[in-house]
Every structure is written in structure tokens, then in C-alpha cells.
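hey m, so remember when u said the C-alpha cells were messed up on ur end? i reran from scratch. heres the input so u can diff it against urs
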Amino acid sequence: MGKKFIKIGLVSISDRATKGEYEDLGLPHLKEWCQQAIVDEIIFLEKLIPDDFELIKSTLIDLADIDQCHLILTTGGTGPAQRDVTPDATESVADKIMPGFGEQMRQISLNFVPTAILSRQIAVIRNKALIINLPGQPKAIKETLEGLKNKNNETTVPGIFAAVPYCIELIGGPVIKTNDNIVKAFRPKK
């Protein structure tokens, strides 16, 4: 049997970053966080694309169906602005919608900013891939993935990544081990 790995698609969605108007921080931040949080070997597929419905849709389909990613994380394009179409494109490729992820991300973010209620982040399953729309800001990405921690670094509100490994197992993906110091994966007792 070959070495175990997880394949993760990272998609940063930004008109301005694709035009070079500013440096994309989403991709490097997501990659670094995943490398710290996941113990297993990771194969990353990284995409920087503009806020375009059809391009987002085709990128997600390719990552899920052709590249066979186990997990696809997007960042950007989740607000109410006219060009923010990431959740709409994500929903259009879904076999199943996983509303708990978006609910928990907004709940965590409300601890920091009242505008968290404007976020339209969602998560879906397509084939054997879990696709999650994350916030656009690196600080908010970390908070929603890890959850809220007290001054002793103890988790007080679980982040969404605690549920990701078990979800991936349930849809036929690999068993993923996490670094408990970053995020402790939850699995029901057998």
C-alpha cells in the first residue's frame, strides 16, 4: 500500500489579486495553516481566479471530479456585493449542502465583527470532495478553522475543521490526522 496523503484544492477568488493590484494572501495562508494542522502528507493544488461564476464553477468541478481532491477550500467572494458569487457557484456544483459549516463560521466571526451576518459562506459535497467557502481575511480564516481559544489556548468554541476529517471519512475519503495543538478532530466514540 502506498503512502497515505490528502489532496487539497486551494482556491483564492479575487478580481484585484488576479490583476496584480495587490498580493494574494489567501493561498499562502491557507497552505501554511493546513501544513500546521494536518499531520498527514498533503498534495496541494492552488488556483488564483477572478470573481467569475462560470470560472469558479468549472474550477470546483475540475478539482473535485478530475483532480479528485478530498477537500477544497475557497477564500473570498462570500459577501453581499454584486461580484461576490463564490457561494452561488459552489451551490451550483453541489450534490449535498452542508449548512452547519456556514452557520458555525458566522457564529465564530460574530465574536469579532457584527458584519459576520453578511457572510454567505457555505459548504457542500460534490462526489467525494468536501468544498468549504472560507472568509477572505487570513485572521478570519484561522479563527473559523480553529475556533475560539481562551488565554490558556484551550478551545472554547470549536472551529469548523474539527468536523472536517470525520466528514471526509463519511464520504469515502482518507482518515486524516490533525495536530491537536492546532485543532483536535472530532470523531464519535465507536
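this time it looks ok to me. Residues 5-170 form a domain with the Molybdenum Cofactor Biosythetic Enzyme; Chain A fold (CATH 3.40.980.10). if urs says something different then somethings off w ur setup not the seq
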